[in-house]
Amino acid sequence: MNGLTALSDVTEAGRPSQRHLTDCSWPQARRAARLAGRRPLPAIEAALADALGHTLAVPLAALTDLPAFDTSAMDGWAVSGPGPWRTVGRVLAGQPCAPIADGEAVEIATGAQLPPGATAVLRREHGRTVPDGGAPAAVATATGQGLGPGLLHALGTGSVPPGQDVRPRGQECRRGEPLLPAGTPVTPAVLGLAAACGHDRLTVHRRPTVELLVLGDELVDSGLPSAGLVRDALGPLLPPWLHAAGAELIGRRHVRDDFGLLRDAVRHSPADVVVTTGGTAAGPVDFLHEALAAAGGRLLVDGVAVRPGHPMLLAELPGGRHLVGLPGNPLAAVAGAVTLALPLLHALSGRPAPEARPETAAVVLPGHPADTRLLPVVRGERGVLPLAFDGPAMLRGLALAEALAVVPPGGLPAGAGVELLATP
Ligand SMILES: Nc1nc2c(c(=O)[nH]1)N[C@H]1C(S)=C(S)[C@@H](COP(=O)(O)OP(=O)(O)OC[C@H]3O[C@@H](n4cnc5c(N)ncnc54)[C@H](O)[C@@H]3O)O[C@H]1N2
Ligand code: MOO
């Protein structure tokens, strides 16, 4: 089947075909991966402390007005009506407060509840008090000078506009107001907002579990590579990246080049998504296709017209699990992850597909005649610039890159729009 025929088989709206995509185009492969995860994992209730990195399964709505009461935005005095004012007490943050009447003021701290009847806040540095019936006191200072009881005057105009330095109740949101849509990743900022508006728990999608199987007898995981051995670059690279994409890493194993070991590792993995590295091509010990078949896997994508990374694959495993086969060459594996693993994990986590926001190519971005290219790039003053050391086996360009540019077949001229993907 060629890529064009397969296009009609995989759409966001439709069901995936029973046939699989062989050497399909890069956009088709990415769509197929999202479609494979079209049923997000079930919603669970998580305490705020456990919700980081999950994805909201329902919109986040405020449980209270924010602020929940009229609040002083500054240290100074809450005043009622036009000045001067008779000072009648003090209210600190967290304390209840009594009403004040026209012509009265209370000393107030930032964040304290504004007393009923107060019309504005006079900043400490903008007022001074004079003792009742006495001579004017010093201008109020940070040391508290001039804050004693007495008559309070506003410096300058002698007045303070109504509402000045007051954060009115509900200024940020009203109780019940939706603040964030379902599908939002729970970041530290989301946790803070959720707490501020009264939540102790969040309804989030269960994270897809991932097991990483790193294949290859030649790989070592410490020290200097020698005598044909190679340091495993993907064991360190992939887990934190997949975790940031919404996954829960439940295991990382080095699997030797042995058909039976690989078949059993795939067959018995409890993960929602098994991610393998290496073994995708046609070498003498590239057993992934055979192991997949023996483990009951069904290919959804087998090869993608993209450089690097073209032998990448995606399969469905018994029990509704999936397998993403990343090529062994490290930059090719990264290309496989952005094409297949991340869209699948995002979809399973309940996250929407990120919107493409094209940027401008500063120079010609060289392409492959027939395949999409994924190029490590940086943003320069005049637009996107490619980096050197972009070979499939290299990570040097990627480590300097701000993004991977999606360069369609044939390349892009300077000034053209180019889609950028986040790098690990
Ligand atoms: N006859 C053909 N040979 C190859 C083809 C092809 O179409 N026909 N495709 C090439 C392409 S493109 C790629 S990419 C690789 C993919 O190979 P595999 O997925 O089978 O990966 P391996 O053979 O296991 O390894 C390839 C390469 O990467 C190194 N490697 C593997 N894992 C790691 C790791 N975790 N960290 C660092 N380096 C790793 C491995 O030592 C090899 O050098 O196949 C081409 N061949
Ligand atoms: O296309 Mo392979 O995946 O680059 O070396």
TrEMBL record:
EC number(s) given by UniProt: 2.10.1.1
Region (Disordered): 1-25
Keyword Magnesium: yes
Classification via InterPro entries: MoaB/Mog-like_dom_sf (IPR036425), MoaB/Mog_dom (IPR001453), MoeA-like (IPR038987), MoeA_C_domain_IV_sf (IPR036688), MoeA_linker/N (IPR005110), MoeA_linker/N_sf (IPR036135)
Magnesium found in the keyword field: yes
Catalytic activity reported: adenylyl-molybdopterin + molybdate = Mo-molybdopterin + AMP + H(+)
Cofactor list: Mg(2+)
Key words of the record: Magnesium, Metal-binding, Molybdenum, Molybdenum cofactor biosynthesis, Transferase
UniProt pathway: Cofactor biosynthesis; molybdopterin biosynthesis
Residues of the MoaB/Mog domain: 211-347
Family in the record: Belongs to the MoeA family.
Record function comment: Catalyzes the insertion of molybdate into adenylated molybdopterin with the concomitant release of AMP.
Protein name per Swiss-Prot or TrEMBL: Molybdopterin molybdenumtransferase
Protein's organism: Kitasatospora kazusensis
